[in-house]
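Record minuted for completeness.

…
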Amino acid sequence: MDDPGPAKLGCTVLEAMRRREEVERLYELSRSMMLLDKDSSTAGQVSFRIAQVFKLPAVAVFDRKMDQVYRTDPADLTISDLRLRDATLQGTAFHDLAANVWVLPLNLGGDPIGSLAIHGGSISDTALHAISNLTAIAMERARVEQAATRMEAARQNEAMKSMLLDALAHEFKTPLTSIKAAASSILDEKPAAQKELVTVIEEETDRLDTLVSETIRMARIEAGDLHLEKRPHAVKELIDSALEKLRILLQDRE
């Protein structure tokens, strides 16, 4: 049996140490990707975390859905956006030896979602593909969470509309009851009382007209047909108007 010799053993030990270090860094990267800020760009944060954990000069991530490239250092990583888009569509990795840049496609479930460019460093092929997989998973997880948030917002919006319709139905019913009662009594009352009943009918009719106008305005807002014109407005007028409407509604209540 041949003696491997000190030099070969030394190389084997160094290689094992390098692989162990890569595994430790991959673990650190996976943990950091679980703590991304949901309010910021996932691709931008991921590129920064990869550069930070693996101590790389520059990293870039192309997010196909956003059609945007996020770079940690544009001056240090000069690969064009077009090449990153091409790598996404072609689904092939390549290594630019002159620039020392690796470009890897990001795929999940067979669908291209972006690409990853890494400048500098000495990373094994296995670790590079692990980094690309972690990046793809982080980006897809963010999309799923955003979709779930939009669905929850839509559900809450529907619940609010249901509550609003219930409130409007009650508001419509109140003046209608008053009008019906006044109309039923007006013929049986003396002229003085008739005048008061007619006043009730007029006031409640005005309330109904206001409610109908507000309902139509809300429907236009919901349909996106209402164009808002922003301009300064005296708040006192709005408050006085609201108080006057409340006064009319509450004047007959204890």
Notes: The beta strands are 58-63, 68-71, 94-96, 101-108, 111-119.
